[in-house]
Amino acid sequence: MSEYLLKAVDISKAFVGVQALDAVSLDIRPGEIHCLAGENGCGKSTLIKIISGVYQQDAGYIEFNGKRFTRITPLEAIAMGIQVIYQDFSIFPNLTVMENLAFNTELAAGRRLVNKRRMRTVAEEALSKINFDIELDRLVGSLSVAEKQMVAICRALMFDAKLIIMDEPTTALTRKEVRALFEIILKLKEQGIAILFVSHKLNEVFEISERFTIFRSGKHIVSGNTSELDDRKFSYYMTGREFDAEPFRPRYEGGECVLEVENLAIEGAFEDVSFRLCRGEILGITGLLDSGRSELALALFGLRRSTGGRILVKGKEIAMGSPRDAIEAGIGYVPEDRLSEGLFLPRSIADNIVISEIDRLTGALSVLDFRRYRQEVEDWVRALSIATPDPENACSTLSGGNQQRVVLAKWLACKPDVLVLNGPTVGVDIGSKHDIHRILQRLANEGMAVIIISDDLPEVLQNCSHLLIMKDGRIVARPDPGSTDENTVLSHML
Amino acid sequence: MKKKFRKLISRTEFYIALVFLALCLLIQLRSGQFFTPNNIVDILSALVVPGIFAVGAFMVIISGGFDVSFPALASLTSFVTTKVLLDAGWQGGVWLPFLIALVLGALLGAFNGLFIGYFELPAMIVTLGSSSFFKGLMQGALNSKQLAVIPVGMRSFGTSALFVAKNVESGLTSRMPTTFLVLAGVLLVTWFLLNRTMFGRGIYAIGGNPVSAHRAGFNVRRTRFLLLVYVGMISALAGLCRVCMMQQMHPTNMLGMEMNVIAGVVLGGTAIIGGAGTLFGCMLGTGLIVLVENSMILIGIPTVWKDAFVGALIVIGTGISAFQVNRARRAGLRNVRKGAAL
Question: Which one of B196, B217, B274 has the shortest CB-CB distance to A107?
């Protein structure tokens, strides 16, 4: 028996000219929890697909249990005990738990007829491996995300698995469910099963893994013991940049007051919210999910009608009935769920950037002036360093961080006086997060008034000049972000 | 017991059955003619052809696509079968026409299956095209005309009856056609395929999630191909039954049936996105449409209103299905949001 269960050596893979993996290596010891980390598009998924036989590498080889392979088919991978739990779990929502669990073994055994009794036995056996208790006749579509994941894990365990690869397993789980998942992972480890845990979330990497490997743009950056890793190093390995978490210092002088909110209320969501915002300031609004912070954001942009109080922009009261009113008053809004509310994903990056200022780019007869259109797009792609070979590509081709920049560009193109951002860096990788923070600080220093609504405490503490803490629909504290800490803020929130 | 009841009332078939029963009772109340032996036999007889078609359409919808070519396929196969046997002067039994129709149906089904299964094109697009192609082949290349006479074996099969039902009061009689056995056979075989073979479970699995099905080890391409071959065969059977029952071959008579058949299937609780539905529900939905088409006259609604009623039924029934899909999706989204919040 060799020291390593799996060794992937010098694996390269290119897709139509793009080098997805460039001579990367990965090794996993039997029964260890190994974390493979890297930002979106770094080649993690490609490597998983090569190990599980879905793709074939262009160069390099894989050693499993000391046996060397230059190519693996999906069936061979399963036979050797490699199981992948994909992000979508590869389940059938329209079928029962029993069928979901039993299909793979039935098919692997080459069965042609259905035998319910045998399938039931198989399914019960699968559940017993991690003592997961669930009704076998329930439709999988009616289960919670965590339960679906458990079904997928049980199914993976049926093939005498030696290595289970989990692709971003915690994405849609609540904190409690993540905890339960980690317990299962530790239990599997006790049974001698190695886990390859793919993630880009820092805290998870630290919490669960013994060893780690980090990829960056298709290259192997580092492998080692997690105990030797810290925040700073992790960020550096992931992005290749050092981040100096510099707190925001307002530099814009003589900022007039642009936004005044007086006793604003929406019945059942929040009440009595008042604040003033001047040019050059960044106001942070934080609170738990039910604190009313999101409703406040929607009210500021006219997406929800307020039931009391008033909003003044540059001293003039605005009847905020629709987003159009807000835009005309000079307020821009970057929504929480950029995928459904902020972007037209199938349309080009260029179209998305200019969509809200399209009226200004027309020439005679209201026909679009293409020279100005291209110039405008080019300017924004450069200003926000949106990583794309061609702005005519669909927005869906971008990573989360870059999509968020497109949303930003779209609003900045309208030159708003006030920019409201709801959860600006949710689901964005470290590097982009840092960049977005820098962009926001720069905008403020150029004279824009910015509101960041977020429950990411380091984010608001680091980037805001003022802070409002909401709880149960009311403002409960207004600490100075420079002289307070996360625990104090948290105690106000809870 | 309570749990079983709750499970029962959560199923679409339950409501379709209720509507079905309510309609039967309404017709009975208004006319007193519904629950008479001859009326019931008449309806069952009218169910044969749409029923067999519905089974085929149902299976394709379960796999996640729509087949709209079955009327054209049935017309072409039954025309060729009838024509060839007439020209050859076949005087024997009905087994040969059925054999020819099955082979032709399998071939045309394979044509669909090749594009849908192996070239992975959407079933709706392929069958829209093949529907035109089959029609064109029949009317152009084969220069189809109405065949007023059909081979003797087919004629006697079409007129033969399992039994004759008589309404004692009115004295009216209705014959239960032997072709009903074809429907029964198709239902039996299909039920077995769908529920007792891995091929059938594969159809459900593919309808649920084709990528997962592939990863689980189903041969997705072959399953889709064989499915379309099978559907071609049973559609050809339906076509031949129609010709036998009508005692003549009318090339365009079946064309246009696809919409009502598919509507019946969806009405019976089959999910339009695929993966969910039962044969029982499929038959209930089809039965409902046949019922409305045949019994409006019994409650004094003129036949000219038939289309309006069938249309309304389709809009409401399929609308409920679409509404459920939307609600499920929204509920799913809410769960994700809730999950992310904690």
Answer: B217
